[in-house]
Amino acid sequence: MKTYEEILQLMLEEVPNDIDKREGSLIYDALAPTAKTLAKISFDIENFRKEVFPDTAEREFLIRHAAQRGLRPFPATNAVVLGKFEPDSVDVMGRNFSINGAHYTVTERVSDGSYKLTAQLPGASVNGNFGSLLPMEFIRGLESGKIVELLIPGTDEENTEKLRERFFSRISSTAFGGNVADYKEKVLAIPGVGGVKIYRAFDGGGTVKIVFITSEFKQPDEGFAKEIKKLIDPDEGEGQGLGIAPIGHIVTVEPVGVTPIDVRIKLEFRDQRDWESVESEVKKVIAEYFHELASNWAQEKNITVRSSHINARLLNLSGVDDVKTELDETELELDKTELELDETELELDETELELDETELELDKTELELDETELELDKTELELSRIVLKADCIPIIGSVVNE
């Protein structure tokens, strides 16, 4: 793309030198408006070139590209929450409530005193609303009501880059007849789902397992999993093709698991700061790191939690001079190449013990070690990273400054 100045200079170079071409001259003033118009045309052509290709198109034109592949941006959806009302004998079905400026309508009775409420406006901004509800009309006998749980997160309209990602995914893999791409596309289209992993034949031929995470990249509750199961392959007609799944597919739907991580840190401070003054900041930094890992769960085979990443983030905190971090799981799982320990078995490699097979032959069933007989001090392991199971995301177990 050429600028106004470049175009004007090219035009003036075509004028003979024996003609006055200085600014303000007749020829200069005649060419300048034309150069300005040509510069605008050059700019428009460059923009047109960007909009022609989906990888550089702006949202308006990307939506048009996606429409040619049968894709539309996912619309914003309404959050669904669980509300508790007292006394439980009061019927609040269909009534309206508000909290923090957001309005909800009671849409389903779960049990006495427990109801599902749906946000009246779509979007993710209401997902953090918990606590006391204010009735928008007088309800005789009602003493209190509160939101206790987010069942299905509300979502904003799909952003441009997510739509672009789906567009190229549709091109690179054809979704058809219950293949992995087909399941992913259909499950991700369900409001409140943020990521999914598909396992074929996990329990024999014809079985499929779906593991999913919410749009907030948190563990879904069992109720949400049941709702998705009903949409994909209802219990009352498993394998009969009554849902999204093709005939012959028996589908199991599970929420992503969570692995509590205990974080032990040693901080050195400056500027008169201490643990009490930075504790909340430290926990926030770790929570943000874990959330970042969870957001990539669907694209990763396994999530790896690294102490080095936590250290780098903590060093950016004001008043922190140095940091050392150690990580532990509640149930410690070590890589087989490092140490293979079972609760009742110990596999000893002959190269580690430097014993010949003829000198020592140990069978797994012959060697039973009780946990009390095997005392491994976690501090000796000094784990710098933890590889989680494929279907798990990290959550904070505890944060301790030593």
Question: Short summary of the structure?
Answer:
By secondary structure, the chain is of the alpha+beta class.
What is the terminal separation in angstroms?
60 Å
Structural class: alpha+beta
Mean pLDDT: 86
Count the beta strands.
15
Q: What count of helical segments does DSSP give?
A: 10
Number of domains: 4
- Percent of residues in beta strands? 25-35%
The percent range for helix content is: 25-40%
Could you characterize what this model shows?
The chain is extended. It folds into 4 domains: 4-52; 80-152; 173-255; 258-341 and 376-401, no CATH class. It has 10 helices and 15 strands. Strand 2 and strand 3 (102-111) form a beta hairpin. It has 402 residues and is of the alpha+beta class. The strands form 4 sheets. A 7-stranded antiparallel sheet has the order 5-7-1-4-3-2-6, with no helix packed on it. It has a 3-stranded mixed sheet with strand order 8-9-10, covered by helices on one side.
List keywords for this structure.
single chain; 402 residues; alpha+beta; seven-stranded antiparallel sheet; 25% strand; extended
